[in-house]
Design brief:
27 strands; signal; 18% helix; SLRP; 21-stranded mixed sheet; Leucine-rich repeat, LRR (right-handed beta-alpha superhelix); two-stranded parallel sheet; 7 helices; leucine-rich repeat; alpha/beta; 742 residues
């Protein structure tokens, strides 16, 4: 029995352990977290007290992080005697320090702070009152320094002379920084290892021949945004490794012809936003990119680029160019990118780009006086161009001739928006079978030829927004099976499209986005959209839609397909405006309620949920869906612990009940056993509760001697007739009881 008790007690202990594992774990985790918090507090106290502990990598007023194995210290001040950095700090960042406490970079300050292995120093958007000539002395691993926008006034020329690994130096947006004056023999900095220098927006008014003479390793130099009006012709003579120079946003009216004659490595030159009127005569034999936008160039002559014939990227946008000689670009045989947009051109020769057979991108947009493209297209010496992007938007074009694009056979993207085009022949795009995107927005098109895209089987995106379209045949899209994006908004359509007899099953079967908002459509039938199996976004807002059973069926279909309405809080035409509606999310339910006056009687699932590869902008709905999932997950987070606790408690109750039942059963068996013994010993006797304590009154009876051989014979049964006995005649009567000891 003791073994059974021990087993039962063991089961009870297991049940208790199962009943509260989660609670215990959570308690332990909470305790550990609390201990961690206490450790953080203790650490903070120790940082405040022990300021010079070398084992502590992050001092006060700093936050230390590790990124790709490098430890970064982000601080809001720098003060010797108060801070001490660990030797493993590799990057120091100070941004927007307290302006009332200017930073003072005294000699050897970084070594005094323990930053012996520092690799980058970034102090920006603050105030540096002083930089000692030896401030960066001894930092042998330093390769990048950024001191931009710090109100710097002076830098000793020898500040970085010992930093032989320094490659990147940024000093931009320090308008009070002093540079050598015109005629001075002084130099700006002695830093032979620096490869990239940025001194933009520093109010530098002149560059002498010696300004950068002790920085011969420069490969990138940015002097943009200064007030440069002139520079010495020998300024860049010693920068033999210079690859990119940014002179933009200055006051330069001209450049000396031979200013770059020694810079044979110069590949990129930015001179935009300067009052330069020509680049004629510049000798930069290996120049690849010339950014000459927003200058005063008004005429591009035939010899303007003779000194830079290897140009691949040419930007002449934003100028006031009125005329371009028809052979201006003929020597630029390597030209890949040509931007002539935002000028004042009124004519474009058909042989303008004849020799530019490597041209990939051609932009002539925003020349509103242009009116026409060449009637027979742009001539090409190799018969066909490799141009894949052509932008002629906002050029005042009134017509696109049949052969205007005949040499653009490789065209993938064409933009003809914001023009005055009224019709487009079926031959215009037929010579460009690789077209993927066509933009015809905001023209004067009232309809489209049914065969306008007959040869454009790869067309995927078509923009017809802002055209006065009144009718559109479905046959227009019968040749574009890959189309995924179609915008016909802000037109005059009264229905989606006119379906013909040849309406194929695959018509717009890949369409995912359709916008027909701001039209005059009164009815859209479900049958018109049945074949759009991949439709994910449909915008039909701002249409005078009428409530009907077809409309209700359409709403059901859109909801079942989980198509997005692609509009939020947008007023729809013919609908009453209510201030409360502005805060309500635009949905099919909202549209139904506004159109029909009440929600549909049958249940509709109106939640919008797109597939994982949705390209439409539904971030708000996706966020709400994810949030709902997280909330549901939170609701079930405590379900398992509660179930385990309940089951454990039930198991414990069952075990306790079992123990009680066994004890009661054992006690009952004992009582029955005792009663059986008494009954066997005193057969026929009864007790009567008379309030006396009895002792057993019996005597040992000796029977007659029995022979040995018959000792195993059964005893004779003695039968007592209880009916002849009475309590008064029994020996247990009160009068017959005699005490044993008198």
């Amino acid at each position: 029995m003791g073994v059974r008790y021990r087993e039962l007690l063991l089961l009870a202990a297991c049940a208790c352990a199962l009943a509260a594992p989660e609670t215990t774990n959570k308690t332990i985790k909470k305790d550990v977290k609390d201990l961690d918090n206490y450790d953080d507090y203790d650490s903070a106290d120790e940082v405040q007290e022990v300021l010079f502990n070398e084992d502590r990598p992050c001092p006060r007023d700093c936050i230390c992080t590790v990124s790709q194995g490098y430890r970064i210290a982000k601080c809001n001040r720098l003060e010797v005697g108060v801070q001490k950095f660990g030797e493993d700090i590799t990057d120091l960042v100070i941004d927007h320090a307290d302006p009332t406490n200017p930073i003072k970079l005294d000699d050897f300050i970084f070594k005094k702070l323990g930053l012996h292995q520092i690799a980058t120093v970034k102090i920006v958007n603050s105030t540096i009152s002083y930089v000692g000539p030896n401030a960066f002395h001894g930092l042998h691993e330093l390769y990048a320094v950024n001191l931009s926008n710090n109100k710097l006034k002076n830098l000793d020329p020898e500040t970085f002379v010992t930093n032989k690994k320094l490659l990147l130096l940024t000093l931009s947006n320090n308008p009070s920084l002093k540079f050598p004056a015109a005629g001075s023999e002084k130099y700006f900095l002695n830093a032979s290892s620096v490869q990239e220098l940025d001194v933009s927006f520093c109010n530098m008014q002149y560059i002498t021949a010696n300004t950068f003479k002790n920085m011969p390793g420069l490969m990138y130099l940015n002097v943009a945004g200064n007030n440069l009006s002139d520079m010495d012709p020998n300024t860049f003579k010693k920068l033999l490794d210079l690859e990119e120079l940014d002179l933009s946003d200055n006051n330069l009216k001209s450049l000396p012809d031979d200013i770059f004659s020694e810079n044979t490595e110069l590949a990129t030159l930015h001179i935009l936003k300067n009052p330069i009127d020509t680049v004629y005569g510049l000798q930069i034999s290996d120049l690849l990119t010339l950014n000459a936008g927003q200058t005063n160039i008004k005429f591009v002559g035939p010899s303007m680029f003779n000194g830079m014939t290897y140009i691949a990227n040419l930007n002449l946008s934003g100028n006031s160019i009125e005329k371009i000689h028809n052979q201006a670009f003929h020597k630029l045989v390597e030209l890949n990118y040509l931007d002539l947009s935002f000028n004042d051109l009124d004519f474009m020769s058909s042989i303008l780009i004849k020799e530019n057979i490597e041209l990939d991108i051609f932009k002539i947009s925003n020349n509103p006086r242009l009116k026409h493209l060449p009637t027979d297209g742009f001539e090409c010496s190799a018969d066909q161009f490799n141009i894949y992007l052509f932008d002629a938007s906002n050029c005042g074009l009134e017509e696109i001739f049949d052969n205007s694009l005949k040499t653009f056979t490789a065209l993938s993207v064409i933009n003809l928006s914001d023009n005055k085009i009224r019709t487009i022949s079926e031959k215009v795009f037929s010579i460009s079978p690789k077209l993927v995107e066509v933009n015809l927005a905001y023209n004067l098109l009232t309809t489209l030829n049914a065969k306008v895209f007959e040869n454009n089987n790869e067309l995927g995106k078509l923009n017809l927004q802002g055209n006065p379209l009144t009718v559109l045949s479905a046959e227009v899209f019968s040749h574009t099976p890959l189309m995924t994006w179609l915008d016909m908004s802000r037109a005059e359509l009264t229905y989606l499209w006119k379906s013909g007899k040849n309406h194929t099953e695959t018509l717009l079967s890949n369409l995912t986005f359709l916008n027909v908002s701001h039209n005059r459509i009164t009815e859209i039938k479900q049958s018109e959209l049945d074949k759009l199996n991949k439709l994910r976004t449909l915008d039909i807002s701002n249409n005078p839609l009428a409530c009907s059973r077809d409309f209700e069926n359409l709403m059901n279909w859109l909801s079942t397909r989980k198509v997005s309405p692609n509009a939020v809080s947008e007023n729809v035409a013919n609908m009453a405006k209510d201030a409360k509606d502005d805060d309500e999310t635009y949905s099919w339910e909202f549209l139904t309620r506004k159109t029909c006056g009440a929600a549909l009687p049958h249940a509709m699932q109106l939640d919008v949920k797109l597939m994982d590869n949705d390209v439409d902008d539904l971030e708000t709905e996706e966020y709400q869906e994810v949030s709902t999932e997280e909330q549901d997950h939170g609701k079930y987070e405590y379900l398992w612990p509660i179930c385990i606790a309940i089951l454990g408690a039930l198991l414990l109750l069952v075990i306790l009940g079992k123990i009680v039942m066994m004890m009661c059963s054992r006690r009952t068996q004992q009582i029955r056993y005792n009663s059986a013994i008494i009954a066997a010993m005193q057969a026929g006797r009864t007790k009567k509760d008379c309030g006396l304590v009895y002792q057993q009154l019996s005597e040992d009876l000796t029977g007659p001697k029995t022979p040995k051989l018959s000792r195993y014979q059964p005893l004779q049964t003695v039968t007592v007739n209880a009916s002849n006995l009475s309590y008064e005649s029994s020996p247990f009567h009160q009068q017959n009881i005699v005490p044993e000891h008198v």
